[in-house]
Amino acid sequence: MSEIHTHPAHSVRLSVLSDEAALGELDRATWSTLHAVSPRPQPPYAPFFDDAHRPPDFLVAEVRDETGGTRLAGYTRLVPPTPLACNTHVRQIQGLAVADWARGRGIARALLRAAMAAAREQGANRMTLRVLGHNAPARALYASEGFTVEGVLPGEFFLAGRYVDDVLMGRSLAP
User: Fold this and answer.
1) Which of 26, 74, 71, 79 has the alpha carbon at shortest distance from 48?
2) Torsion, CA 24, CA 30, CA 33, CA 36, rounded to 10
3) What's residue 64's pLDDT?
4) What is the pLDDT, as a whole number, of residue 116?
5) Which residues of the chain have pLDDT under 50?
6) How far apart are CA 14 and CA 8, in angstroms?
7) Which of 12, 31, 121, 149 could pair with 5 in a Cys bridge, judged by C-beta atoms 3.0 to 4.6 Å apart?
8) What angle do CA 154, 95, 132 make, to 5 degrees?
9) CB contact at 8 A, 103 and 74
10) Which of 65, 51, 67, 59 is nearest to 23 (CA)?
């Protein structure tokens, strides 16, 4: 369970099976139509991990507390966008969440940078993601890390009474 990114106040590492309860709780707590297209989770909750969402697909951020312990503060999912051999050079961010109490501490940026580093280690030379058009904070973060808008599906989703664009962003992972 090696750390991928370290900072004096937080670290990023690969997820492990024992993270499941905390990740499920974080996922439910951060659900919002600002970034989610699926319905709000309702009990009984499905497992966070399943055959399509395995622990090694997730990077988790932990924050060190005043007692020296750690608390899970966020996660991102990093996977190949398709199972096709001709697409193995690409990795895609499929979800990024940060706990409300941990916002403003650089957690999302650390997760994004760790994901780019992990993608490079996996041999990828390109990274993509999809973000809802009205999610200005996420779009600004991605743009500040070199992602550019590569496509827009206007009005692709109907969320909270309005149509929302689906924005594809991408970047090269070349040094």
Assistant:
1) 26
2) -40
3) 86
4) 97
5) 1
6) 18
7) 12
8) 20
9) no
10) 59
